[in-house]
Specification:
The structure holds two protein chains of two kinds. Chain A is an alpha+beta fold. Chain A has helices spanning 9-12, 28-38, 42-46; strands at residues 2-6, 20-24, 57-61, 64-65, 81-86. Chain A has one domain (2-86): Beta-grasp domain (Ubiquitin-like (UB roll)). Chain B has helices at residues 37-43, 46-51, 84-90, 110-124, 136-148, 162-169, 182-195, 206-209, 214-223, 240-254, 276-282, 308-317, 327-341, 347-361, 400-406, and strands spanning 4-9, 15-16, 31-35, 80-82, 94-99, 128-132, 151-157, 174-178, 199-200, 231-235, 265-271, 321-325, 370-375. Classes of the chains: A alpha+beta, B alpha/beta.
């Protein structure tokens, strides 16, 4: 099942400067693992050693923060869109 | 003359050249400004600061610009008010209000951060500035962009208070109201920031922008006679202000501008319905669980606070605490401050007053030590929040009888 992933600027170098890539998987973690098969090294930027998304990384599935769903285990469907976004300041 | 050495990742320590970047390429940690404190120490003394103009640039060496400031020259240096009447009402002895409801030119502490961000944006050569905003930041960017003749794009949640919409539109920026909450606006903006070469003050200029908040803390210490308060109650949205006041206090001592180190306890204040930072403090957790905000304190309605983690660290390190208050308590807080000290603050100020009251009543803040309550914005921007709770004018005919009849109970 192929989903589209929006890549943030700090990670673009790892994916041949593409803004979006495609990857397969049944849930977020599987998609990240598939991204890492295609572009080795990208997973360690996003996840820690326990396969948890790093503190300063936000992942959105179709616009919804995955922490409002099942986090790394959130199910994905074909044609879903995932965005990886660094935490940003506010006011 | 520049005192900035470069940027450094707060998490892994990796160093970067000065540039409009905000996140570590390796661990996604936030980037921070690295200063040459040794050089600053040789230049900056109490005497030198005291002789300078009454604006935030009196601490210029501790702000991340390379040349002379060009934007926001009159922002900052707001009053620190000894609040006798409010102190009596709350049953404490030494209470101060740091009053940024009168910050120049848009009546919130965001004038400080934007003065720094837009001065820096000009140094980087940007012609367009932008921000995601809960209102106050948008007002400040709009006003300063107009004055600096920069193009402005302001992104706000569509349900914002009218006062804050007008407070941006009058300066004629491109004001974009997004159907969604602030966190959704912010997410969209981080994607826009990727595709356009703009200076997004709270995204790619964040390391520079956020430093402006330190001046709020510098002023408190200077205005207390180069001393720190024992307690400070700070509103928390992204959590940045708490961390920057704390950093400012530490820098002042490091540069020997105060004789003793800060022992201030920091208290975070949020509205019930959007209190992810308070939840983490109370549950003693490092991870911030995001929420979907429901509160009248819209300027604090950030459900996914970027500096949430660091702000809880400051609260813990200083042995402070945090508290959340209901919409009713927020309105009562606004009214209490207005009716004791004559200061009309926005909902975020109602939050800090109400949280201070709660912490004093709980005995968490003792009555005989010095307390600063942070007031960061102006009530004229959030009038809708209180309109139904402050009564109505007494209407009379234009004659003396009508006046006497209407007011007979009070004459």
């Amino acid at each position: 099942m192929s989903v589209k992933i929006n890549i943030p600027t700090p990670l673009k170098k790892l994916v041949e400067n593409q803004s979006t890539i495609s990857a397969d998987g049944e849930n977020i973690l599987e998609v990240i693992n598939d991204m890492d098969r295609q572009y080795p090294g990208i997973k360690e930027r996003i996840c820690d050693e326990q396969d948890k998304v790093r503190r300063f990384v936000n992942i959105y599935l179709n616009g919804e923060d995955i922490r409002f769903m099942d986090a790394e285990q959130s199910k994905v469907a074909p044609d879903d869109e995932i965005s990886i976004i660094p935490a940003i300041a506010g006011g | 003359m520049s005192y900035v050495l470069g940027l450094k990742c707060r998490e892994c320590g990796k160093q970067y050249e000065k540039a409009p970047i905000y996140v570590c390429e390796f661990c996604f940690g936030p980037l921070e400004i690295e200063y040459d404190y040794q050089a600053i120490g040789k230049k900056l003394t109490r005497d030198i600061i005291s002789q300078r103009g009454h604006n935030l640039w009196r601490y210029r060496e501790l702000l991340p610009i390379d040349k002379e400031p060009t934007v926001g020259l009159y922002s900052g240096y707001t009053p620190l008010i000894k609040a006798h009447k409010l102190a009596d009402a709350l049953g404490v002895k030494k209470l101060y209000i740091k009053d940024d409801s009168v910050c120049h030119p848009t009546f919130s502490f965001k004038d400080r951060v934007v003065a720094v961000a837009l001065s820096k944006a000009r140094e980087f050569g940007f012609d367009t500035v932008a921000c995601a905003s809960t209102g106050n930041l948008g007002n400040a960017v709009s006003a300063h962009a107009a004055q600096a003749q920069l193009r402005g794009f302001i992104f706000i949640p569509a349900d914002l208070e009218l006062g804050k919409v007008v407070g941006s539109l009058i300066y004629a920026p491109h004001l974009v109201a997004v159907e969604g909450n602030y966190d959704q606006v912010n997410r969209l903006c981080s994607e826009i920031a990727r595709d356009y070469k703009w200076a997004f003050v709270n995204i790619n200029l964040r390391p520079f922008y956020a430093e402006g908040s330190k001046t709020y803390g510098f002023e408190i210490a200077e205005q207390l006679g180069w001393k720190y308060p024992d307690h400070i109650v700070v509103p928390a949205a992204s959590g940045s202000l708490i961390t920057k006041i704390y950093k400012g206090f530490k820098e002042f001592y490091q540069l020997k501008l105060t004789d003793t180190p800060p022992k201030t306890k920091f208290y975070a204040a949020q509205g019930k319905g959007c209190s992810p930072i308070i939840t983490a403090i109370k549950e003693n957790k490092d991870a911030i669980r995001p929420v979907k905000p429901v509160t009248i304190a819209k300027s604090l309605a950030i459900g996914n606070p970027a500096d949430g983690y660091y702000s809880t660290q400051v609260v813990r390190k200083t042995k402070g605490y945090g508290e959340e208050v209901t919409n009713e308590e927020i309105i009562d807080g606004i009214k209490l401050l207005a009716q004791t000290e004559g200061i009309f603050t926005e909902t975020a100020g109602g939050v800090t007053v109400a949280v201070a009251k709660k912490l004093i009543e709980q005995g968490v803040i003792p009555p005989d030590e010095s307390i600063v309550i942070c007031i960061t914005g102006n009530g004229l921007k959030t009038m809708d929040a209180v309109t139904a709770n402050i009564g109505k004018p007494v209407e009379i005919e234009p004659n003396l009888d009508s006046f006497k009849k209407a007011m007979c109970d009070y004459l």
